[in-house]
Write a structure and sequence with these properties.
Chains A, B: One of its GO terms (molecular function) is hydrolase activity. Two copies of one chain form a homodimer. With 225 residues, chain A is of the alpha+beta class. The first copy, chain A, is 23% helix and 30% strand. In chain A, strands 1, 2, 3, 4, 5, 6 and 7 form a seven-stranded mixed beta sheet that branches. A three-stranded antiparallel beta sheet of chain A has the order 8-10-9. Chain A is elongated. The first copy, chain A, starts with 10 loop residues before the first strand and ends in a 13-residue tail after the last strand. Chain A binds a DNA duplex (27 and 27 nucleotides) through helix 4.
Chain lengths: 225, 225
DNA sequence: TCAAAAGTGTTTCACGTACACCCATGC
DNA sequence: GCATGGGTGTACGTGAAACACTTTTGA
């Protein structure tokens, strides 16, 4: 058995669509490039894969650098292979999307970027490379996933209220959902637990605080748009 | 703007899960390897990506070589990156699955394999590399996809009967489906057209022949397991 | 005319949807 | 006590599931 002959392979990178939710808005993390190509343009964070490194490790490395964050929920999205997608040469991108709570992270541009910032997904600037395409697919996937699997909790604080979860769903799905039917579906799914505590401070009734049920049972749910 | 420095990149290959359906059985196409590693073991067909080649082109090349077939339905599945997945060195695999009609193709082993054959998905041999994992994910994806999107037709002849389509669904989903409710859901979806012809030969009532409606309208469907 | 399988229709029931009411809190 | 928003209950209708009957064909 002979090892691979060292013929040339395409460059291999991961690109990350990092979603954050705060102030009732869904946002994406973007970098402003310091160097060509696409100098001074906004792009998704990413990094080249190092030998012996797994996609997930590369993602974690980027998230740690840009966000100072560990233990982030992420999922592989799709692999992009258009030969013209990077003007520097052939480059394959394996895209992941991640869900974080912006309140818990401190973004920092690092040496490779002029700036790093959260953008509301409804007011995106033009993106370099094929990153608009990647972002569009990620948003589509997130919307689909959230309707049948409990990923929404990743975007909220550990304790959250039902109205907060409801607002999150309406924001991400960009639609209105009957709050009473929504409540029932979520409760019936057994994915969340009522802590008995209440969110204080509001000048009207104090809503119950829930937490995510990590040992998720069989019950699923289905939020219809 | 400088081009990529030529540091070493992992090898990049595509692996294909080719599904076929005939004689009321779902099958997968496997190759028997002529060389190490995994000599004389069964594996999924695949090929290394050539520079300037897209995943889809590599897949087509494999399908053309192994099956003498063009115009095959295929879809990207997932990318696999375990550093230990190939004993010859670091190799990334982008997996695709394809749906073909075995009646229309002539499989040939080619120079790289001892043999090539269809295996019933319920009686798979042990597979080399991480190909069992890839196969499992592909079957899961196919099962999920077929419940809401018209991919089943890719596995049948151009003209097919309702009982044939029904049998296909029961086989792939490995469950029984009420034939009358199934018929209604498919008809209501507008994905198929009654040609007016009938399948001759059977010694009982001759079923209507349908064809796939390529200009698919908005109506979807949902086959529940 | 009989068996086997395909085409068509109907009843039933569960779930999703729409909607109304009561409760808690701060001013 | 009043405005605001959160928690709970219920009637209704649509659509999926369960099921029966008729039709067509070859032997």
């Amino acid at each position: 058995m002979k090892p691979f002959h060292s013929y040339q392979n395409p460059s291999l990178a991961v690109d990350l669509v990092v979603f954050g939710y705060s102030h009732e808005q869904l946002s994406v993390l973007l970098l402003n490039r310091k160097e060509a190509p696409f100098q001074d343009q906004w792009v998704l964070p990413g990094a080249f894969l190092q030998m012996e490194e797994r996609f997930r490790d590369t993602c974690s490395r980027v998230l740690k650098t840009k966000l100072g964050m560990d233990d982030v929920y992420m999922e592989q999205l799709y692999s992009f292979d258009d030969p013209g997608r990077d003007p520097r040469g052939r480059a394959i991108a394996v895209a992941y999307y991640a869900l974080v709570n912006p309140a818990r992270v401190a973004v920092s541009a690092g040496s490779m970027a002029n700036d790093v910032a959260w953008f509301n997904v409804r007011e995106l600037p033009g993106l370099g490379f094929d990153h608009k395409e990647i972002f569009d697919l990620a948003l589509q996937r997130l919307r689909s996933k959230i309707t049948y699997f409990p990923v929404g909790f990743e975007l909220l604080d550990e304790l959250f209220t039902m109205p907060e979860l409801h607002e999150l769903y309406e924001c991400i799905l960009d639609t209105s959902i009957d709050r009473r039917n929504f409540r029932r579906k979520i409760i019936d799914s057994d994915y969340i637990i009522n802590t008995g505590k209440k969110r204080e401070g509001a000048q009207n009734r104090h809503p119950d605080l829930y937490k995510f049920n990590k040992k998720l049972k069989k019950n699923g749910f289905q939020i219809n748009v």
